[in-house]
TrEMBL record:
Protein name per its UniProtKB record: 1,4-dihydroxy-2-naphthoate octaprenyltransferase
Positions of transmembrane segments: 38-58, 87-108, 114-133, 145-164, 170-188, 216-234, 268-289
Lineage per the UniProt record: Bacteria, Bacillati, Actinomycetota, Actinomycetes, Actinopolysporales
Major location (coarse): membrane
Keyword Transmembrane found: yes
Key words, A-Z: Cell membrane, Membrane, Menaquinone biosynthesis, Transferase, Transmembrane, Transmembrane helix
Gene3D superfamilies attached to this UniProt entry: UbiA prenyltransferase
Coiled-coil segments: none
């Protein structure tokens, strides 16, 4: 049986910035449109955290039963290591998706935007079929695009819309930035796993692009949010506070461009997620001041 520590590791708390940052960004842009609503923001946060935790356990389950985690560079997985039964991990994943669905319905009830139930259904389906089902899209090179869409436009603009009943340029910019940061995290993760993914037949975008082009893609994605900061700052000067997050991406860029591999890329995932969170917070403060 897996220990409590192993279950906590399975939650993969280090991925939570990818869920928290888009809600902060969406709530900040809603506030800029005079529509901030604390209860809706908190419920949106519950949805995001439950979804990303569910994704983590669902990936653990699906990769584990396929055997793609038998040779692994990153942190140990529950199913792949044999420390937990697949059914138990699946139950936890489904429970997280259930919590996300309940919180999401509460958001729709309070906001009155019932048509967004379609977005919720697509988000849960996307979370499952990333590595689940007979033809997971994460095994076919579509993972980064899906992450961009779900953690960018869907999360940021969805959070903004349910609070402000509108979408504006600042929201779209924040959505692109969050999507780019989230995709960069996945690119770094898949860059690390290129050798083992090739061995197991997992055709991620990194496997398809190859090592060099994957590194170029990471740098492009991680710098894209700062172009958004520049453009937003032309209209709302305090939004330039987003540049404080640039300090957190310097080390990851160095590691990626100098050719680090394997476990030495783990700090890249951590620092990219933290940069995403700091960018969202700093930009939120800038928009509030502006």
């Amino acid at each position: 049986m897996a220990s409590v520590a192993e279950w906590v590791e399975g939650v993969r708390v280090r991925t939570w910035p990818n869920a928290v940052a888009p809600v902060i960004a969406g709530s900040a842009t809603a506030a800029g449109a005079a529509g901030f609503d604390l209860p809706l923001a908190l419920l949106s946060l519950v949805v995001a955290l439950a979804l990303i935790t569910g994704v983590n356990f669902a990936n653990d389950y699906s990769d584990g039963i396929r055997g793609t985690d038998e040779v692994r560079t990153g942190p140990q997985r529950l199913v792949g290591s044999g420390s937990a039964r697949p059914g138990s991990v699946l139950a936890v994943a489904l429970g997280c998706f259930g919590i996300a669905a309940i919180a999401g319905l509460a958001v729709l009830y309070l906001s009155g935007h019932w048509w967004l139930v379609l977005l919720g259904a697509v988000s849960i389906a996307g979370a499952w079929f990333y590595t689940g089902g007979k033809r997971p899209y994460g095994y076919a090179g579509w993972g980064e695009l899906a992450v961009f869409c779900f953690f960018g436009p869907a999360a940021v603009l969805g959070t903004m819309y349910v609070q402000a009943d509108s979408i504006n340029g600042s929201g779209i910019g924040a959505a692109v930035a969050m999507g780019a940061f989230s995709s960069a995290v996945l690119v770094a993760n898949n860059l690390r796993d290129i050798p083992t993914d090739r061995q197991s037949g997992k055709r991620t975008l990194a496997v398809l692009l190859g090592d060099r082009d994957t590194r170029t893609l990471y740098v492009t994605l991680v710098l894209a949010p700062f172009l958004i900061t520049t453009l937003t700052g032309l209209r709302i000067t305090p939004a330039l506070l987003g540049f404080v997050a640039l300090a957190l991406v310097i080390s990851p860029i160095r590691r990626v461009t100098r050719g680090d591999t394997g476990l030495s890329l783990l700090p890249v995932l951590r620092d990219t997620g933290l940069a995403m969170l700091l960018w969202a917070v700093a930009t939120a403060v800038g928009l509030a001041i502006g």
